[in-house]
Amino acid sequence: xxxxxxxxxxxxxxxxxxxxxxxxxxxxxxxxxxxxxxxxxxxxxxxxxxxxxxxxxxxxxxxxxxxxxxxxxxxxxxxxxxxxx
Length: 85
Fold this sequence. Notes:
It is built from 4 helices and no strands. With 85 residues, the chain is mainly alpha-helical. The chain has one domain: ACP-like (Non-ribosomal Peptide Synthetase Peptidyl Carrier Protein, Chain A, Orthogonal Bundle), CATH 1.10.1200.10. The longest helix is centred in the middle third of the chain and has 15 residues, at 41-55.
């Protein structure tokens, strides 16, 4: 687990209230949108704001899609791409 992965897990835990066990169980293929009841429309807005703060990034509206929120891996890939890592 690298810093981006750990940071994303921390933000998800903080925003969605996920416990350490649920966070540790996340794999790249773990579904997010539609699978986590905590991830509703309000949580999505809060999540992206928290990601911007945590990683010092800016997301465009086009970044917030069902595809980028489909799995932990797709969201992680977006954050890595935005960071240029």
